[in-house]
Amino acid sequence: MKTPAEAPAPQRDRRPDAAGTSGPPAPKAARNPGRKARGTGRLTAALLGLASAALGLLAWAILANSGIDGFPGPVAVARRAGELSADGTLFADAGASLKRVLTGYVLGVVLAVPVGFLMGWYPVVRRLIEPWLQFFRMVPPLAIIPLAIVLMGIDETPKIFVIFLASFLSSVVSTFQGVVAVDVTLVNAARVLGARDPQVFIGVVVPASTPFILVGMRIGLGASWATVVAAELIAAQGGLGFRMQQAQLYYDLPTIFVQLIAIGAIGLAMDRLLLLAERRLTHWQERR
Predict the structure, then answer these.
(1) How far apart are the C-alpha atoms of 257 and 243, rounded to whole Å?
(2) Is the backbone of residue 22 left (phi > 0), alpha (psi -120 to 50) or beta?
(3) How far is CA 59 from CA 4, 52, 62, 63, 171, in A?
(4) Would you report the helix, strand and coil content of the chain in percent, each value rounded to 5?
(5) Which of 78, 105, 112, 216 stands the most exposed, by the fewest C-beta atoms within 10 Å?
(6) What are the tens digits of pLDDT across the range 218-275?
């Protein structure tokens, strides 16, 4: 009989217990690495944007001091912007142009999205509308401005109409292409699972075509601003384009630069809002 001293030592159970405390503790994973990476990316983008703005101002100042007759520099334009802001002229003109753009743009997008869906979903509607759509796409909205003024007068109606036309044509084509580009496999899979046409349309077609719709909206926004400036150059009693035309008569280049910068700044702000909406609505989409 073995004595207690001669008895084999009991084997330690090396299986991890329920709490998993066996062996050395594992290092803690980094907390929220994705959030840290996003924060770093936003900081880098902000710094790059500031550097780009600084380089642009530097190039502008160098160009103004290069001897071009009458070409204003940043200081002269900033001084003129302060004068126009102090007497309220800049804000009144920007408000008039923004009102026209928003009215025509919203009307164009609201009508373009359902028309694009109908064209992409129903071949009969596509064959009826697409030839006319492509025909009017080849006619620049600026070429319709004189006709619109003759038929509708010189009030707000012709300006809003040409803006509506520019935004509508851009948005309807993008929406149509988005519906056509939907993967047929997704549609067939939804139908195999028992989904009816309305469910397939709402659950598959609309989400898949949303990126195309938003791209068309961004393109239509740029076309709307280009159109409103041209319309105000021809017939208007106020607006950023109207003020540029008045400044041209007196060779007032600083005022022209102020209006150009105002148009670009407002348009850029609206485009950033659309881009933010795009990221919110299409967060499932892979990005680079």
Answers:
(1) 11
(2) beta
(3) 92, 11, 5, 6, 36
(4) 75, 0, 25
(5) 78
(6) 999 999 998 888 888 776 778 898 898 888 888 889 999 999 999 999 999 999 998 8
